[in-house]
Amino acid sequence: MGKWVRVASVEEILPRQPFLVAMEDDDIALYWINGEYFATDDLCSHAEASLVEGDLEGYTIHCPRHGGQFDVRTGEARHFPAYAPIRTFPVKREGRDIFIEID
Amino acid sequence: MASKPTMVNEEYQYGFNDGDVSVLKFAQGLRRETVEEISRIKKEPKWMLDFRLHSLDVFYKKSMQHWGADLSQLDFEKIVYYVRPSENQGRTWEDVPKAIKDTFERLGIPEAEKKFLAGVSAQYESEVVYHSIHKDLQDKGIIFTDTDSALREYPELFREYFGTVVPPEDNKFAALNSAVWSGGSFVYIPKGVSCDIPLQAYFRINSENMGQFERTLIIAEDNSFGHYVEGCTAPSYNSESLHSAVVEILVKEGARMRYTTVQNWASNVYNLVTKRAVAYKNATMEWVDGNIGSKATMKYPSVYLMGEGARGSVLSIAVAGHNQHQDTGAKMVHMAPNTTSTIVSKSISQHGGKTTYRGLVHFDKSAIGAKSNVKCDTLLMDNESVNDTVPYTEVETSQAEMEHEATVTKVSEEQLFYLTARGLTEEEATRLIILGFIEPFTRELPMEFAVEMNRLIKFEMEGAIG
């Protein structure tokens, strides 16, 4: 069972603007799409570029470095040259705060 | 003791030019308008214009790579991005403008077509000027056409696959190609169909400072087979030309595809190419890649082995002479169980030339039981020539097998002595050793190409012994 960590307030997150959460170990990308929050690894599984610097199209984040694509809901790689999935994390909102569950 | 043999480059035999035969030639330099104009001339759908403009943005954003060949002399503002050589594409040789026809005749294309090819595509500057395919192949449902025509004639099929294997963001030159692409081949082989004789494309640059950006897309459906062959030449000029192609190949379940290239660009051409294939379950992808010419080549054909039992192979030779750098290699990405790959790279450096083998073998966690064998052999002809071997291996599973062997050798005195003792001249002996060295490569070429390749190598070596 992981622990829930507060990572942002709702005011900080803009719709469709990926938000970088700097964690102790790995950075996490936070997304607000159609009223729902999603969290994934920030680093692309292909060549470790920061995904929050990429473009979000629907539920797909485009890696800015080589054009790999991931579904932010599942972490699944959708486009070459990325092929390995990225991790996803449960997200919840409590009041004005957003929490991510990490291991 | 005999003196060490050295190889001397004879004058490049395809270095002639036809003068300017174009009907439309853009000014040098790359602007947003250049891209818009190419798309407008080709009467493309809006999605393609958007794709091109997005790619141009990506191109501007990406910095030049700081590894591999020295590209510091490459000036994007001096390149001509689009040259239309004729008004229409020919279906018979008679339709092709005379100057262009003469060039291809000097290069032996119509002869080859008659003798042993299933289809031919001849690209001159930015456009395909001649195209043909045997009728019986067409009747089987095989599509072999130029990429611009494919966009017009098979829009859904085209859009489904175009840019899915090599996105514009992949690298700066893939982005440039995606922005200004023109010509190239589109091949579609339906389920279960075997195209037993090769399809060939021939790429020729004629103008000075020309940039050729063809785009090739090949789709081999389940249990099909195809063999695509391409050749490239250009005139010799004092200023640089650029050839920057993107090749995308999808090999579906149980299918087999072979892609053979023999590039013999003039020594003023930068050859910066992205070639990638995806092989699905039990599919086989084979790259056979010969790099003889160019000023600098950076090319790493890759296979993403995505389905169980997929196989990939790259068999390549690189010959670098004076002022040439062949930075070539291969990538094999094992993403499924029991996938296998083989890389055989043969390099010859002579007269101060430089060859680099740069390769990647990646085993994903899921690649249980996968196997890869990499073999890099180099022949250094003299003390000024250079070879680097830069193999990368990434292994995320403990249940895969990886073998790598590399050798760097010189033409040995012993071998020469043995052969000359049997009546061969030193030149003949050196030639024989080299032809033996590249034999694993020539063996895999179609017969006529193998003969041509041996002839080319002999030609490169003419007058070698002083």
Fraction of residues in H or I helices of chain B: 10-25%
Question: Helical percent range of chain A?
Answer: under 10%
Largest binding interface between chains:
A-B, 12 and 16 residues
Helix/strand-derived category of chain B reads alpha/beta
- Which residues of chain A sit in consecutive blocks of at least 5 with pLDDT less than 50? none
Largest sheet, spatial ordering of strands of chain A = 2-3-4-9
Q: Please state roughly what percent of the residues of chain A sit in beta strands, choosing from under 5%, 5-15%, 15-25%, 25-35%, 35-45% or over 45%.
A: 35-45%
| Spatial gap, N to C terminus of chain B | 15 Å
Mean pLDDT metric of chain A = 94
Question: Structural class of chain A, please?
Answer: mainly beta
Largest sheet of chain A: 4 strands, antiparallel
> How many β strands of chain B by DSSP?
24
How confident is the prediction overall: mean pLDDT of chain B?
A: 89
* Beta strand % of chain B: 25-35%
Oligomeric description of these chains? heterodimer
